[in-house]
Design brief:
mainly beta, Lambda Exonuclease, Chain A, 1 helix, globular, GxxExxY, GxxExxY protein
């Protein structure tokens, strides 16, 4: 899907592979922009370690370089933003 000139994938499926067993619908990423930026959207009282772990898992398994965890429940949106960088991501994220 093209949005404002950017390629955006909604609810992108990310398979899990373990010992030659693949689960095709293992994870579902909220938004992936230009196959580089993962956006995980929440509406919760506060972000938890499990929300962070979820985003970091997406970055690692999908080989994405950067992710934003966004909590829309915050009174001030910038207070609900957390940015994460996958320093081990190669320059060519997987098509996952």
């Amino acid at each position: 899907m093209k949005n404002s000139g950017l390629y955006v994938e909604r609810e992108k499926l990310l398979p899990i592979t373990y010992k030659d067993i693949t689960i095709n619908h293992g994870y579902r990423i909220d938004l992936v922009v230009e196959n580089k930026l993962v956006l995980e959207l929440k509406t919760v009282e506060e972000l938890t370690d499990s929300h962070q772990a979820q985003l970091l898992t997406y970055l690692k398994l999908g080989n994405y370089p950067i992710g934003l965890l966004i909590n829309f429940h915050s009174k001030i949106l910038k207070n609900g933003l957390k940015r994460y960088v996958n320093s081990s991501a190669s320059s060519h994220p997987s098509d996952g």
